[in-house]
TrEMBL record:
<feature type="signal peptide">
    <location>
        <begin position="1"/>
        <end position="21"/>
    </location>
</feature>
<dbReference type="InterPro" id="IPR031993">
    <property type="entry name" value="DUF4789"/>
</dbReference>
<protein>
    <recommendedName>
        <fullName>DUF4789 domain-containing protein</fullName>
    </recommendedName>
</protein>
<keyword id="KW-0732">Signal</keyword>
<dbReference type="Pfam" id="PF16033">
    <property type="entry name" value="DUF4789"/>
</dbReference>
<feature type="domain" description="DUF4789">
    <location>
        <begin position="64"/>
        <end position="119"/>
    </location>
</feature>
């Protein structure tokens, strides 16, 4: 009785492992959409129209502002190069500096830099704003902005192993490494 069941599992495993998968190239690897794609390793580069040069994708700095990275974007049916804040960061409206989300960043003491809902962002930029942390039920708890929850102070809370949750000099929750 076990042999037929086992045979079915072996057959299924062989079918799944023996099947082949295809890797599709990203849209910017098409020479018709991105002239840099014709170069060796061109699928890692984007064309920057302002100077007619090819630049490495997702690299911070030139031709973008120092804190932004070169990213692929869409304009009509074409792939275009855009400067954007890297994941986990955003910018204030009308500025080009990117700041880490859920940290003090450009905010006053006691405030943190929070993402603005995408529906508010008409230009496709990752934008943020300064907000005050929510108050927790009692003073033994501290608000962790990244997940919007309250955790007990001086515990691991949302921190990685070996760190404890505490209040930093800026009045915000932070993870402190324990040195014993």
């Amino acid at each position: 009785m076990c042999a037929p069941v086992m045979a079915k599992w072996v057959w299924l495993a062989a079918l799944l492992c023996g099947s082949q998968a295809a890797v599709l190239p990203p849209p910017w690897a098409d020479v018709r959409r991105n002239p840099c794609a014709a170069h060796p390793k061109g699928w890692l580069m984007l064309y920057w129209p302002a100077d007619g040069k090819c630049y490495t994708i997702y690299k911070k700095g030139h031709p973008c502002p120092d804190t932004q990275e070169l990213s692929p974007g869409r304009w009509g049916g074409r792939t275009v190069a855009e400067c954007k804040c890297p994941p986990g960061s955003a910018q204030l409206p009308h500025t080009t500096n990117c700041h880490k989300l859920f940290e003090r960043g450009p905010c006053r003491p006691g405030e943190y830099f929070a993402p603005v809902e995408e529906s508010f962002n008409m230009r496709g930029e990752r934008q943020g704003m300064c907000v005050r942390p929510q108050q927790c039920a009692d003073e033994t708890l501290i608000y962790w902005p990244a997940d919007g929850r309250c955790y007990y102070k001086m515990t691991q809370g949302p921190c990685y192993p070996g760190a404890i949750l505490d209040v930093g000099d800026d009045g915000l929750a932070n993870c402190t490494v324990c040195h014993f």
